[in-house]
Amino acid sequence: MTLAYRTTTVDGVPVFYREAGPPGAPKLLLLHGYPASSHQYRNLMPALADRFHLVAPDYPGFGNSGVPDPSTFAYTFAHLTEVVEELLEGIGFTGPMGIYQEGYGGAIGSRLVERHPDWLRWQIIQNANAYEEGLSEAWDPLRAVWRDRTPETEAALVPLMETEGVKLIYTHGHRDIEALSPDNWNMDSWFLTRPTARRAQLDLFADFGTNVERFPAWQQWWREHRPPTLIVWGRNDIFFAPSAGKMYLRDLPDAELLELDSGHFAIEDSLEEVVTAIKTFYADRVA
């Protein structure tokens, strides 16, 4: 197995990415969620590196990538998608690939496919909702910011960036909290203390409403193109309704659904089930 930790410059920003598996193997892009980074795939990548060539970037403002000042860098999902696109083109990781999308990665993955539909060969959707009715009440403070961004509505989002809030995202709904490494929330909380990091995240919270507006277009594209899709869903996710994973079957009736007694970061306590599902799905439906 080859495994590397690399940083390149995209649009003047240092962008970190992990890479594993042999070049020439089928490509699998791993897109992370909030409040995480490519670190969330630290165990999944070695488990899949015997079968795939994997790349997992940290978006600007996350993980080991740079945190440019929001006064000069637009923290929008459209811009983060452009950064990921430029990164992949710069390292030659383009063309037909699988895309693993978790959390924010669902929006960035869908936007990337809008720009390059020929890049998507198959996809894994893991707790990355694309249905407005799938958003739980945990989104109410974000909805308020979408309607009217003020210091008062922003203040309601601060708990999502505090250590206890970050920890809750990782632990809510997981069947064995003692199996979860505290490195996850401690590290992510530290990243959020960097200068301008919280302002960057507030900008992204405010911009997420532009993804909700695009949900119908993404659903229509899935209905028309039917990409091979594996849905892996921690049904106790703090952010999404328990039935949110099933909602994809409306537009992707041929998709396979694996529901897990887990939360938002399902691979933290369900790694073996997820790895088996991915390898079996790829062998049966894609290869």
TrEMBL record:
Keywords for this entry? Hydrolase
Q: Which GO terms describe its molecular function?
A: hydrolase activity
Describe the location of the AB hydrolase-1 domain by residue ranges. Answer: 28-269
- For this protein, the parts annotated as crossing the membrane are none
InterPro entries per the UniProt record, alphabetical: AB_hydrolase_1 (IPR000073), AB_hydrolase_fold (IPR029058), Epox_hydrolase-like (IPR000639), Haloalkane_dehalogenase (IPR051340)
Q: Which SUPFAM superfamilies match?
A: alpha/beta-Hydrolases
- Hydrolase: is it a keyword of this entry? yes
**Pfam families according to UniProt:** Abhydrolase_1 (PF00561)
Q: Which Gene3D superfamilies match?
A: alpha/beta hydrolase
Q: What is this protein called?
A: Alpha/beta hydrolase
Q: What is the lineage of its organism?
A: Bacteria, Bacillati, Actinomycetota, Actinomycetes, Micromonosporales
